[in-house]
C-alpha cells in the first residue's frame, strides 16, 4: 500500500448516476474530504463524464478523469467477445470491477494521496479481526454484493459503501432534496459499452468470425439458419423469429461444437431447469479464504446465479475436477459464463465462481 495516504479523504467513483451522487453527500456529512473520479472506459463513456461533471459541480467537489480504455479492452471487451463467440454468456461487470474499475480507483487514490475509495454499490463491507468481508445490502431488491466477490483485501480494506444500508427509494428522495438533475434518472439496464444492446453486431464489427448453424425445434427438425451462437443465450425468448406456436419459445440448450440452438415451447419447459452446475478449479474464488473447501468436502450455502435473484438453498461439493453446486430445487436458466455466488446464513458473501456447465 502506498505510504502517506490521507485517511481523512475519500475518492468516489462517480458515474453520473443517482447512487454515486448521493454517496458523495453522505460521505461529506460523515466529515470526510471528498473528491470524485469518473473513469473513461470506452468512447461510450462521454455521457457519464459529462454527467459526472454536473454532479461534482453541484456538490462542490473536485473531479478527476481517469482513462482506463486500454485495460478495459484487454480485461473486459476482448474476453466478453471471445466468450460470446464460444457460446457462453459472460457478465462483464463482475470482471471489470477487480481488473479495471476498482483497480483504477485505487491507483488514482494512491496518486492523489487519498486513503479511502467509495462507490455507489448496494453492498456492505464488514471487518472481522483483520479481515474484510463483503455482505449483502439492506435493500434485497438492489443488492450488488454478487458483483463484488472478486475484490481483494487491499481494496476491501480501503472501500466505503455508504448506500449499502439504504433502500433505493430513500436514495432517490435524498437526491431530490439535493436538487440533483439525476434524481429520477432510470437505472442503467444495458452493458455500458454496448448501449443499444446489440451484442451480435458489436462482436461482428470488432472482426470476430462466427459460424452459422441451425435452430432446432422440439421434434428435432431444423427451423431456420442462424448467424452464430453468440446471438443466443440459455432462456432467451426475444429475437428468435419463430412463429406458429401457441406458447412462447425459449432457448433451452446450445451445442457449441455443432453450432446448434435447441428451443423448447412453454414458460415452464423442463429443458429450462437444471438441478446442478459445475465450476472449474481455476474459476473458484473464496472471499473468505479461511472457509475454503477441501477436495471431498461438502457444505450447504445460500446461492445466487444471477443479479438480484433471491438466494437459493443448495449444497457445494468440492472435487478434484472443480466445484459442483446441487440445488434443493432445480433452477431456471443456468447459463455457462455467468457467475454463481454462495453466502452464509447471515448474508456474508463467502465465495463465487464462473459457471462452466
Note the main attributes of this structure:
single chain, 357 residues, alpha/beta, seven-stranded antiparallel β-sheet, five-stranded parallel β-sheet, 7 helices, globular
Would you write up a description of this structure?
- By secondary structure, the protein is of the alpha/beta class.
- The protein has seven helices and 18 strands.
- Helix 1 (18-29) packs across helix 6 and helix 3 runs antiparallel to helix 4.
- The mean pLDDT is 88.
Summarize the biggest pleated sheet.
7 strands, antiparallel
* Portion in beta strands: 25-35%
| Rg (CA only) | 22 Å
What are the secondary-structure elements, in order, as H or E? EHEHEHHEEEHEHHEEEEEEEEEEE
**Distance separating the two termini:** 38 Å
Structural class designation:
alpha/beta
Number of strands: 18
What are the segments in which pLDDT stays under 50 over at least 5 consecutive residues? none
**Strand arrangement, largest sheet?**
12-16-15-14-17-18-13
Rounded mean pLDDT score? 88
C-alpha geometry: globular
Number of helical regions: 7
Helix content: 10-25%
Q: Could you give a quick summary of the protein structure above?
A:
This protein is an alpha/beta fold. Helices cover 24% and strands 30% of the residues.
